[in-house]
């Protein structure tokens, strides 16, 4: 299967990434929509923002367990083969590549969605729902899906430092708009 190449359609724009942390809400999604900026939703957050441009979920198991995601009107993307979704090449766990057809996984879909925003040309990426603690806004995933452990959140937050450095070197400003986030490698701010 040929990997999808991310087009640079958001050159110089501000892009929002809406993840699934407990701080994510309908109000946050509505404010992003009102701002009129491109948006990438991660996993179940498509239910709060069905108007978003891209739905990103790395795991084929999530797509299998969430069949209504296929009705999402925007682009559907994964780094595992999923019928009905564009597929990006898995470039390994840590790092950043300028190649437009791949993502490094960092073990979480949120980090991969940030990379999509940068590769699409985003000059400023706003993070929402990146709590890196306390589960999800939608409660626990049902089996066969796994739920994130506190140790995983800590590891992800530490590992994403390499992503923060790589994006800063490329002039991409990433601002964490998640109140009380444990993700400290990106500066905190508000949109």
Determine the CATH topology: sialyltransferase cstii, chain A
Oligomer state equals: single chain
CATH architecture: Alpha-Beta Complex
Main β sheet profile: 7 strands, parallel
- Rg measurement, Å: 15 Å
In whole angstroms, the N-to-C terminal distance is: 38 Å
Would you list the SSEs in sequence order as H and E? EHEEHEEEEHEHE
Shape: globular
- CATH superfamily placement: Alpha-2,3-sialyltransferase
The CATH class: Alpha Beta
In order across it, which strands form the biggest sheet? 5-4-3-2-1-8-9
Low-confidence stretches: none
Written overview of the protein:
This protein is an alpha/beta fold. It has a single domain, classed as Alpha-2,3-sialyltransferase (sialyltransferase cstii, chain A, Alpha-Beta Complex), CATH 3.90.1480. Helices cover 25% and strands 16% of the residues. It has four helices and nine strands. It is globular. The mean pLDDT is 92.
Helix and strand arrangement:
Layout: E1 14-18, H1 26-35, E2 39-42, E3 54-56, H2 60-65, E4 75-78, E5 86-87, E6 89-90, E7 102-103, H3 109-119, E8 124-128, H4 150-169, E9 173-176
Parallel strand pairs: 1-2, 1-8, 2-3, 3-4, 4-5, 6-7, 8-9
